[in-house]
Amino acid sequence: MRIGHGYDVHKVDPAKNYVILGGVKIPCAFGLLAHSDGDVLLHAVADALLGAAGLRDIGSLFPDTDEKYRDVSSVVLLREVMRRVRSGGLEVEYLDATLIAQRPKLSPYVEEIRSTLARELEISVERCNIKATTEEGLGFTGRGEGIAAHAVCLLREKG
Length: 159
Description:
Layout: E1 2-13, E2 18-21, E3 24-27, E4 31-32, H1 40-52, H2 58-61, H3 74-87, E5 90-100, H4 110-121, E6 128-133, H5 139-142, E7 146-157
Helix pairs in contact: 1-3
């Protein structure tokens, strides 16, 4: 077994009216500022997978200085990460992730996010856990200045 941890954060962009989290578009009074679609959850998951596989981080694979990644869907990036994980003879055993946001309210979307992520990771929904929390008004996420995500995954060798 191998374990990996990922973390990502993006600032609020008041010019947008939705966020994308776990590949799910969520209506919101703001968006997230990013070179890609700003999906903090998928970015954290990708880094967890890459870390467990002993590969470099998401920023080295998909740099924000490369225009081909401008506004790219993070699902596309995650699929490339999964291709690399599988080509290394590994598969996902379990994922646990936490979204940290004061707003929007994420509980109505957690099951859709979970299903989407499980499908992309090629695991059962029971092996994909997604949680959402606030920070009770504390810190940059609590003040509504951004959204963050942590992810931990277990990989195992195929076979």
